[in-house]
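User: Can you help me understand a structure? I only have the sequence.
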Amino acid sequence: MENSTLTYYKVHLPLVDSTNKYIRENANELWQISNGATALVVSADAQSAGRGQMGNVWNSDACKNLLVSIMMRPMFLKVTTQFRLSQISALAVCATMQRFGIHAQLKWPNDVYADRKKLAGILVELDYSGQCIEQAVVGIGLNVNQTEFCTMERVPVSMKMLTGADYVVGEVQSALLDEMSQLYDMLCSGRHEYIANCYASMLMGRDEYMQYADAGGRFAARIEDVLPDGRLMLRRHNNTLSVYAFKEVEMLLNT
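Assistant: Let's start by predicting it. Here is the structure, written out as tokens:
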């Protein structure tokens, strides 16, 4: 069992190109002035070059959404189990939404949806030392108060659009960091099966057939399992099983 609880050193910026980029480029200096914190947090009112998975662009109006990156040193995690960081990050966002009365679900691997529309995106970037993870950056973009969006590949939604209420972005961030700390504790204490089961229970398409597309075209399937390395196992109507890595298959929503 690892000594776990995250303590945060926080930096907030009015404008940055990307919180993930900033925290990585300034990590050494931030750790030196962090007063023994075990995690760094960089948030911003606006990003000029926000990024999502596989280089996708993350668009956000200034001061209306949560744009935050968290850097940790989970050196107890092996490279083969790195997907657990994605799991706890996604679950932390869902648990945060629950605090505000919003039911969120996960779209494999770690997008957060509500009402079948994208509510948050997560980008995890890792540095390795041998077979272990030396440093991890979890970037989270969560739509909070924005109600109008430019054309995006995925139809977005925000907390305000779901409830009609305005939110204090800083309060949402505080709740998220608290949930992240609790889930990180579980990860450190070896509660891997519990985390995996919670993650699976939040997945869209777990208990119903959904439309997907892979290199061979469109098909209907339901989620059979998510393997420890993060690969997705789908069962088709004819009971055949297929296993996919990231970006090899896409769940089709709002089509």
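Now, to help you interpret it: Residues 49 and 233 are 33 Å apart (CA to CA). The first helix runs from residue 19 to 25. Let me know which part you'd like to focus on.
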